[in-house]
Amino acid sequence: MGYKGPTQSTHRIDLHGMTVQVALSTTKTIIENNTGAILFLIVGKGNHSGGVSVLANNIKQYLNTQGIPWRYARLADGGTGVLVVSL
Questions:
Q1: Helices then strands (H, E): number in the chain?
Q2: CB 82 within 8 A of CB 40
Q3: What span, in angstroms and rounded, lies between the C-alpha atoms of 68 and 51?
Q4: Among 45, 65, 75, 82, which has the highest number of CB atoms less than 10 A from its own CB?
Q5: Do the beta carbons of residue 41 and residue 15 sit within 8 Å?
Q6: What is the Cα–Cα distance from 84 to 40, expressed in whole angstroms?
Q7: What topology does CATH give the domain 10-86?
Q8: Residue 30's closest CA among 66, 81, 57?
Q9: pTM to 2 decimals?
Q10: How large a percentage of the chain has pLDDT more than 70?
């Protein structure tokens, strides 16, 4: 086993159950302090909000306005209830 180069750190952050304001503040702080990391932001699927994930919509909007790329997690990792952010 030789050196395989630098690895990215990954972090799972559970925003589920937070208010939008607290979740956005938490997301901003985590992004500022984790350059080069991969974040798994657990935002939920909106099952308790009539099928609309209020957190996901607000977090996606923030990421888009900041030009931060994101995607939904693979189904095995939470699917649309988890946003994957590569910093």
A1: 2, 4
A2: yes
A3: 25
A4: 82
A5: yes
A6: 5
A7: Ribosomal Protein S8; Chain: A, domain 1 (3.30.1370)
A8: 66
A9: 0.83
A10: 86
